[in-house]
Design brief:
Pathway: Cofactor biosynthesis; molybdopterin biosynthesis. By secondary structure, this protein is α+β, with helices and mostly antiparallel strands. It is built from seven helices and 29 strands. Bound molecules: ligand LQZAQKY5 and molybdate ion.
Amino acid sequence: MITVEEAKQLISENVSALKPVTLPLDQLAGHVLAKDIYAAYDIPAFKQSSMDGYAFRFEENLEVLTLIGEMAAGTSHSFEVKPGETSRIFTGAPLPDGADTVVMQEKIEKLENKIIVNDSQISIGTNVREKGTEIKAGALAMQAGDLIGPAAIGFLAGIGVTEAKVFPMPSIAIIVTGNELQQPGSTLKFGQVYESNSYSLSAALKHEGITQIESLWVSDDLKLLTATLNKALNQNDVVLLTGGVSVGDYDFVIEAAKNCGIDQIFHKVKQKPGKPLFFGTKNEKLIFGLPGNPSSVLSCYYNYVLPAIKTLSHKQNSVKTLQAKLTAGYQKPAGLTHFLKGIYKNDQATPLNAQESYRLSSFAQSNCLICLKENQQSFAPGETVDIMLLPH
Ligand SMILES: Nc1nc2c(c(=O)[nH]1)N[C@H]1C(S)=C(S)[C@@H](COP(=O)(O)OP(=O)(O)OC[C@H]3O[C@@H](n4cnc5c(N)ncnc54)[C@H](O)[C@@H]3O)O[C@H]1N2
Ligand code: MOO
């Protein structure tokens, strides 16, 4: 059995970013750029007003101007403003030819067709957005490696970009195994349990912006599981299986993986929960066999699956590890790293009750996993431990 650190190392050695794709602007959010973007145009594309007011050609001591026309936002015509003349202008409108300055309408007095400028602060260029001041044609707009957030989407739209080359999000199949599983909403018969793993996993994946997710259920049958796994592998970048990865007579994941030509990278990690975790690859595809207990599934997801998925999309791991002081002591046997569901607040971590891997009630309340070292048995109150902050 390998250690948690060895398992994480093996995954990172076997995962690299997916091949970049070109996506349209409205699908770029949440992706990392794979190629630099250069501006095609000067933006603003013309000299424009940043205020509602009056545009004129600035000259010292020029206070009375003659109104000769109007420039509204979106106008396609222009005219010339000579010294001593002015044009009514609105925010975003092009300056008329010859004008270089705008006075806000709050800072003038109007007498018929004359404008008196009452602005002691005004100087040449006041309230004017010069052409190309946001970006110049040919300049670097965004760099490969930049994460595209909402502001970046707006920026790219604003400079006329319609598509970009990015690292894609993986498509992911979730295969839940187990004859006992029933859908929430049905009445449980003796021996049945509600299926929850596909729900927690797909919620976690959607939280990452992943949209191509399919959930499949397979009974405990090697042939069926092999066929479903094969199909899922053909159609997806990642396959997450839950259950059937341990040593029971109806645990077929390891054998099905072999049947599908998956290379086993590891099976079983010195950890609780999630000891029977399986990880394999087939060409560039990743296969995680997550131990069926609902809490083991999520604990393995945050420790192993999420970092791998982030790497596929060329992103940083979003689970931050930091240190905190335990508010209570804890005892465990040596030999396995324990991940306790906990609450992190004010630099302190409190382990919750209900740590058993079949239970999710504590996970549902937690905001961190407290990592207790493999070979340490006793943890004192106030002792500093590593914690993983869970994305919320
Ligand atoms: N003799 C041994 N038995 C077990 C060992 C072991 O080392 N020796 N390891 C235990 C540990 S630790 C875990 S974790 C489980 C993992 O077993 P499997 O991955 O084979 O999972 P299953 O047996 O199929 O299910 C375990 C548990 O989880 C429930 N489950 C499964 N899928 C779902 C689902 N989609 N939604 C809700 N609940 C689910 C299932 O009913 C079982 O109760 O093995 C231990 N045994
Ligand atoms: O490792 Mo299992 O997930 O403890 O029950």
